[in-house]
Queue: 2 jobs
Job 1
Amino acid sequence: MRVMITEQEIRERVRELGEKISTEYSDRPLTILGVLTGSVVLLADLIRATSVPLRVALIQASSYGGTRTSPTALSVNSSLVPDLTGRDVLILDDIFDTGKTMVGLLESLKAFHPRCVRTAVLLWKTDRTCVHLEPDYFCFKIPDEFVVGYGLDYNDEFRHLPYIGVPDESDLVKAGGHA
Ligand code: IMP
Ligand code: MG
């Protein structure tokens, strides 16, 4: 496993993001909406880096039917989403890759009548993005490499790693998959 972004670098950028959110949402009714499962580590750290009143909610998005990096269909489960009427929502995900997940989530949230929706991610794979949307907040732009850790998985493994790493072939085999 090659370390791409260290635990210390993540901590620093998440702290900065928390400060930015605290400034921009100081007088707004904020709900941070974490996208399961990849955002859980970032969600836990980010909310403790903020100093404004906020609510936490969860939504589930899964891409399936394709290969590791080219999923074909998106399924959104919004059954856990609370009332968001009139609230300012910040969707929080682990990574903005093609961007299709975020576009699908924005569409799904319309039914909840929030006042305003913005998006935040830990990682943005800029070379892969293929939608007319950019994340409002991001911590790191990264090249087109498959990464795991800090919530991101391969075959549901590696989410617990405190850093962002690039798995090698043997890591992937150990995780029960294939490159
Ligand atoms: P999208 O392409 O922006 O819709 O991202 C789809 C989903 O693919 C993300 O929410 C992640 O769960 C997953 N994904 C994309 N790139 C990576 C990666 O490098 N490592 C792990 N998961 C990834
Ligand atoms: Mg995900």
Job 2
Amino acid sequence: MKMNKIGNAEIHVDDQTLVCPVYEGTEGERAVDIRKLRKETGLITYDPGFVNTGSCASDITFIDGEKGILRYRGYDVADLAENCEFIEVAYLLINGSLPTVAQKARYSSLLNKHSMIHEDMREFFIHYPDRSHPMAILSAMAVSLSSFYPEMGENHTEDVDMKVTRLISKLRTIAAFSYKKSIGDPAVYPRHGLKYCENFLNMMFSSPVNKNPYNAVMIEALNKLLIIHADHEQNCSASVVRGVGSAGANLYASISAGICALWGPLHGGANQQVIEMLEAIHRDGGDVDKVIEKAKNKRSPFRLMGFGHRVYKSYDPRAKIAKALCEKVIASTEKIDPLLDIAQELEAKALADPYFIERGLYPNVDFYTGLTYREMGIPTDMFTVMFAIGRLPGWIAQWMEMQKDHDSRIARPRQVYTGPNARKVVPIEKRK
Ligand code: ACO
């Protein structure tokens, strides 16, 4: 997390000049250090959504939104998706390097060892109403882990592998149990003989009457889908995880807050919204042009779901991988999915439209992931849960990095107050 000082910038306020150091990261990102701004000048910056604000220095993930680059710890996401399993990428994000054969074997055995959840926690599922959104269950269960396994909050530097694999393994089990609860099926327990992704598919789809209804293409797709979601630097949910953690909250509580942030339709919830949008177009007779016009209409709040990104102003590199995976999974099922045709037509038309070109709006990761999950038999309201399972190693890595960062402080932005000036309370009988 070391930045190099490359010069100074001056901020002139009235007749005062504040000299601010300028730092540079390893990929050339430059930042003006304004930490003394308020103390020296009384001014704060106004930056809604923190669009221009670097909240930390980080060694984990590099994104170049203009060039469409995404790297975890220096490795291109496409390289990792092609050559690694998800748990290797999880290890990389959390530990800083890819595992050796021995490290991977230990990690896998820890994942197996910690895959069950406490039987008392299983009782929780029974009391949720049948149509509960699995993200509500997932976030509640994640924070409940802090009651069942409180040691993570104590000394997080001790046996990190054990503590984080426990979380990574159990969240997957919780996710699968929440699905089984939502369809009224008995829970399927994790199995030691299965690798991480296959274990998840088994817990999701096996039942007492139907064993292993999944195939190798689905296992490969799941590995890759989880990898492309594994981290995305200071996005909304990661910032929430860091923000909650900055107050000293334990890892489970911080992750639970991140899950809630991810649930939002402008963030991880968009993959669900993409499918709902494509289904609505299909029901409506497939008129793609009408939807594009609606998305461009400034009087309508509607946006083309799965399009646009705060950081990427070119094709999201994850969307490229997701699109290829989607086509592969659909080909393997030998089914025809009319939603894929609609998605491809929508993409082609939007990419040729001046509105989307001028604003740099391209398909984001959510545009094709929902279709792929749907083809794999994962229901729509589980899409964001899948995203959360993938993003978990990134959240953990961000949280742990923040704990070690000497510059880290409790997250506490300022505001520009625009409400009423000081006034006195009028007795209730005299109020109008
Ligand atoms: N459809 C239509 N217009 C759009 C879209 C869209 N999907 N996205 C952005 N725009 C327009 C905005 O209206 C704005 O137009 P204007 O300049 O005329 O006012 C311009 O493009 C810039 O958009 P912003 O809202 O400033 O972009 P911001 O960075 O704040 O938002 C966001 C990014 C939230 C992702 C936005 O593009 C969006 O709502 N997309 C749809 C939801 C979605 O797919 N979310 C998933 C994001 S990826 C993820 O979280 C994993």
